[in-house]
Specification:
Shape of chain A: globular
Helix content of chain A: 40-55%
Number of domains of chain B: 2
Number of helices of chain B: 11
CATH topology of the largest domain in chain A: Rossmann fold
Radius of gyration of chain B: 34 Å
Order of helices and strands of chain A: EHEHEEEHEHEHHHHHH
Structural class of chain A: alpha/beta
Number of helices of chain A: 10
Helix content of chain B: 55-70%
Strand content of chain A: 15-25%
Oligomer: heterodimer
Structural class of chain B: alpha+beta
């Protein structure tokens, strides 16, 4: 039995997901959240096995939330769910410690399959290529490049702070900085007010 | 800078009061000059001067009304100022009846030039006027009278006052127009962002939900067709959203295509996408459609043709754009996928901008070649 928490701010999609997941044997939706505050509450009250996390969330960053979930013990599996599930987003998801990436455009059987594989402990992410690493590094401060390599290798924060000889709090700050640079901006997915405020 | 109409008509005059005002001021200056010539005997050839100034005034006012564009020509300013100063010189006294006419000749450069350069023109005029005054015999003894002295001072200062006033007003108007244009552009952009956001946030999510819910049903050919249409609709919406976000932003076509190519390079991994050459200047709508057509051809080659190399070539033949996208993939399929409307979209875009689009597989070994010829769209001014 895989208990799945849904984090997505689109009601139509949440309703559709809940329906198809409820009818799939072996998978149970335990609840849904529309933003990060609700999501936090949902995760700490229901202790799901897997969080299906929308990448673009209003008032919050899916990648940062993913990283926070994965540093908890015991951490749920996190499956990033996006309409733009390409290799670049896959790379960012990997750096944030996500276990998988699923496309919103994929048919339900494919989604079930990814959920099962992730729940079994597999990482379902597009392959890591030197080009992707190079492109991502170019968006970072040079001093953060080693940290990025450790992150995509799946190194846990304690080991990162030991390897880089940094205080754990400093590691956290720098991880947050790296993840915010890896965020892939899509103007259309920002609320109109948000874009104006960010500039 | 006001955009002058090419021909005068009452409608244009109402739209551009500046031309009317200029004509009226000049007519007044000329009538005053003729009046002064009639009342006072200025020279021995007053009648000839009156005829010349009436003729010159009629011709210049007529010219400005018919071709308002001359108000922006430095050559026309120079000729006009030269004629006015020459009239002052031949009237044999610096207190000439043609002084007002010379002031009206200062107006067009004052309005058209940036503030500082307008000031320079005003100063230059004053210097030239002093030269003419000296030439016509500036009798220093007559200047002992304070009234004469004041007249001279007024004559010397007035050009500066006129140019400063007009240049300042024109500068303010230009800034206002720019500001209004900017506000309008921002409003349009905000509106486009809002529509894009709504499409993404509501309509597209519903399509995803519908696709997801239907995809759990037992397989059948009808269902597969329905799902394919849903996927096509999602892709179409994606394109519309991308267009509303208008990624071109006035940049040249080859720059945007190179950016897209490096994106595809990154995402496709094994495929090498290159863009060679550059495009001629095209109208913005043609650039947008051309970009979408070529981008679609590029991603088709990467996604469906299984190509190793995709090469985009751009070249200009005069103002016509010749573009080609060639790949070494598996070539065109015998039958198109059901619901595949990428090619259809490419053709309808090409039709919209009057471009010629051909898609073929030149060699039996495989590969696809997309060729696009985009003619320069005749500008609106050229079509009656």
């Amino acid at each position: 039995m895989i208990r799945v928490a849904l984090v997505d701010d689109h009601p139509a999609l949440v309703a559709g997901l809940t329906t198809v997941l409820r009818h799939e044997p072996g998978i149970v939706p335990v609840g849904s959240a529309v933003d990060l505050a609700e999501a936090e509450h949902l995760v700490y009250t229901t202790h799901p096995d897997l969080v299906l996390l929308d990448y673009h969330l209003p008032r919050g960053d899916g990648l940062q939330f993913c990283h926070r979930l994965k540093t908890d013990a015991p951490a749920p599996k996190v499956l990033i769910f996006s309409a733009y599930a390409d290799a670049r987003l896959g790379f960012a998801a990997r750096a944030a410690g996500a276990d998988g990436l699923a496309s919103k455009g994929a048919p339900a059987p494919e989604l079930f399959e990814v959920i099962r594989r992730v729940a079994r402990g597999e990482r379902v992410l597009p392959p890591l290529t030197p080009e992707l690493l190079r492109e991502a590094s170019s968006r970072l401060d040079p001093e953060d490049a080693p940290l990025l390599s450790l992150l995509v290798d799946g190194t846990v924060p304690r080991d990162i702070s030991a390897t880089l000889r940094l205080h754990p709090a400093e590691v956290e700050t720098r991880v947050r900085r790296v993840l915010s640079r890896l965020r892939i901006e899509l103007a259309a997915t920002e609320a109109p007010g948000a874009t104006a405020a960010n500039r | 800078m006001p955009d002058y109409p090419s021909r005068w008509s009452p409608r244009h005059l109402a739209a551009d009061r500046w031309i009317g005002l200029f004509g009226l001021t000049r007519a007044t200056a000329i009538l005053i000059a003729v009046g002064l010539l009639a009342v006072h005997r200025v020279t021995s050839y007053d009648v000839l001067l009156a005829v010349v100034v009436l003729g010159y005034g009629t011709v210049t006012i007529g010219l400005v009304l018919r071709h308002p564009g001359v108000l922006r020509q430095p050559l026309a300013w120079a000729v006009d100022l030269g004629v006015a100063l020459a009239l002052i010189a031949v009237s044999d006294d610096w207190r000439s009846p043609f002084y007002l006419l010379a002031l009206t000749a200062l107006a067009p450069p004052s309005v058209a030039l940036p503030f500082r350069r307008a000031l320079t023109v005003g100063a230059a005029f004053t210097v030239a006027y002093v030269a003419v005054a000296v030439l016509t015999g500036l009798d220093l003894t007559t200047l002992s009278s304070s009234i004469r002295l004041e007249t001279l001072a007024t004559h010397l200062v007035l050009p500066g006052v006129v140019t400063v006033g007009l240049a300042y007003a024109a500068d303010v108007l230009r800034r206002l127009a720019r500001e209004r244009e900017r506000t309008e552009r921002l409003a349009v952009e905000a509106e486009r962002r809002r529509i894009a956001w709504e499409l993404h946030d509501s309509a597209k999510q519903r399509l995803h939900a519908a696709h997801l819910v239907l995809s759990v049903l037992p397989h059948s050919e009808t269902l597969e067709l329905g799902l394919e249409h849903l996927r096509g609709a999602t892709a179409d919406m994606e394109t519309s959203i991308a267009e509303l976000r208008s990624p071109l932003g006035g940049r040249p076509l080859e720059a945007v295509l190179r950016e897209r190519a490096s994106e595809l390079d990154l995402l496709a991994g094994a495929t090498e996408v290159s863009v060679l050459g550059s495009a001629p200047r095209l109208p913005p709508s043609a650039v947008a459609h051309t970009y979408r057509i070529i981008a679609e051809a590029m991603s088709n080659a990467v996604q469906h043709a299984d190509a190793d190399r995709v090469q985009v070539r751009l070249s200009a033949d005069g103002e016509t754009l010749h573009a080609s996208v060639e790949d070494d993939g598996r070539g065109l399929p015998e039958r198109l996928r059901p619901g595949a409307n990428g090619l259809l979209n490419m053709h309808s875009r090409a039709f919209a901008i009057g471009a010629r689009l051909t898609i073929d597989s030149p060699s039996p070994a495989g590969g696809t070649r997309v060729r696009l010829v985009v003619p320069p769209v005749p500008s609106e001014g050229a079509t009656p």
